[in-house]
Design a protein that fits this description.
two-stranded antiparallel sheet, 8 helices, 4 strands, disordered N terminus
Length: 226
């Protein structure tokens, strides 16, 4: 993945995230996406319930714009009894600079666990295709998220962030973004944050639309799937 250089662009004419223009795009894309995907959403719900019971939708507190907490919705990909502390301990290990036990082929620390036995068979497929994120279209309609933006952060991650990482909270979190089209789990944690901050610094309507157009192709190829 090419290196990302983050620079502040002082362009008074650019459209800021959160402006009515972005909101109109968000509403159109989310509404059309939900309508088009309704049969697929129903099939996924049934598959999750049939595999092991439990709720099909997973709800989790995340931090949005200005670090305001909100509830994010995803398809459940783990067993109902899965221990959430496993991921917390792993992220704390990464942010503390400890050596990771989950690396890519180049030996670089990955954000997501490379092998997680808490994930179900249906869940592995949903994660590899990012179909588990589809319920977040509802979060976009609610105004809690944007279609494009930084990945929504779990509160315990933000507690460990250096001050420079707080730039990612200047905008709404997104369903997709620069991280998702630049390698997903092929990125290290710090590369992921750098890409999120790059969106804050470089955002434009054209970049927004470019990310939206490129996302389906990345997902079809399962590039960087975890």
């Amino acid at each position: 993945m090419p290196a990302i250089t983050i620079t502040e662009q002082q362009n008074p004419d650019r459209i800021l995230p959160g402006s009515p223009v972005y909101r109109v795009f968000d509403l159109l894309i989310a509404a059309v996406g939900i309508l088009v995907c309704l049969p697929l959403l129903a099939i996924i719900c049934c598959a999750i319930r049939l595999e092991g019971g439990g709720p099909a939708i997973f709800r989790q507190r995340r931090l949005g714009r200005g670090k305001r907490p909100f509830t994010v919705h995803k398809f459940r990909t783990m067993r109902p009894s899965a221990d959430p502390e496993v991921h917390r301990a792993y992220v704390e290990q990464l942010l503390a600079g400890a050596e990771s036990t989950h690396t890519d082929r180049r030996g670089r620390d990955l954000y997501k666990l490379a092998s997680d036995d808490r994930v179900t068979r249906v869940g592995r497929f949903l994660r590899s295709t990012s179909l588990d994120e589809l319920p977040q279209l509802y979060d976009v309609l609610r105004g809690q998220m944007s279609v494009v933006g930084p990945r929504p952060v779990i509160p315990y991650e933000a507690e460990l962030y250096p001050a420079a990482y707080d730039r990612r909270f200047a905008v709404k979190p997104g369903l997709t973004g620069l991280w998702q089209i630049n390698g997903r789990n092929e990125c290290t944690y710090h590369e992921m944050v750098a890409l999120d901050v790059a969106w804050v610094e470089r955002h434009s309507v054209w970049l927004y639309l470019s990310i939206v157009v490129r996302t389906p192709w990345v997902l079809v190829r399962c590039r960087g799937a975890a």
